Amino acid sequence: QQQVKQSPQSLIVQKGGISIINCAYENTAFDYFPWYQQFPGKGPALLIAIRPDVSEKKEGRFTISFNKSAKQFSLHIMDSQPGDSATYFCAAAGAGSYQLTFGKGTKLSVIP
Amino acid sequence: SAVISQKPSRDICQRGTSLTIQCQVDSQVTMMFWYRQQPGQSLTLIATANQGSEATYESGFVIDKFPISRPNLTFSTLTVSNMSPEDSSIYLCSVEDRPSSYEQYFGPGTRLTVT
To answer: Which chain B residues contact residue A46 at CB under 8 A?
Structure first.
C-alpha cells in the first residue's frame, strides 16, 4: 500500500511565526509532491508543488523543502497569518500513475 | 487553471435512493477524478474517468455502487446508488489541468447526508 505519512495532525502558531508541516513517503518512484490548502466547506486548492530534481521551491510565503534520500518533504509557511488557518494536505504521485496519494492532513490554526 | 463546478453543492437523501453529482469544467481536460472525503478526513480516490473509456475504480469501490459517466471532455457525473448513512460524505471531482503534469484542481465538492 502506497502511503504518505503527514505530521503533525494539528498545529497552533502565533501570527508572524513559521508553520512547518512534514510528510514522508515510501514509494521511491513518486516524482511529484504537491501541497493542498483546504478551507471549511471548500475543495482543496493546489498551493505549491515540487519535483525531485530540486531540493527547495519557494512561492511567496510558502516553501517546500525536499529531501530525496530521506524520502521526506515539508511545507514551511513564513510570517503565518490568521488567514492561513486551514487544513493542509500533502500528496504524492508518480510511478507511472497520475493518481494522488494524500496524507491525512494538518489542521493549522494561526492565532493573533 | 481550470475552473470546476459541481452540482448539487449539498443534498440530504433518504437511504435506498440514488444521487447523481455533476462536474463541469470550463476547458477540455483528458483526466478527471472522483474523490470521497469523509468529515474531518483525508481524500480517497474513488475512480479515474477518462473520456472515451470506462472509468477505472480503486480498491473498495465498484461500478454498481458508483457508476460514472464521461460523455465529453468537459463533463462527468458520479452516481451514488442505493445509499446508506455510511455514504454520507463530501464528494469531489478534480481534473488534471495540463496533460501529464500531475497538477490536479478540485471542484468545490458536494456534501451528501444520507438519513
So the answer is: 1, 103-105
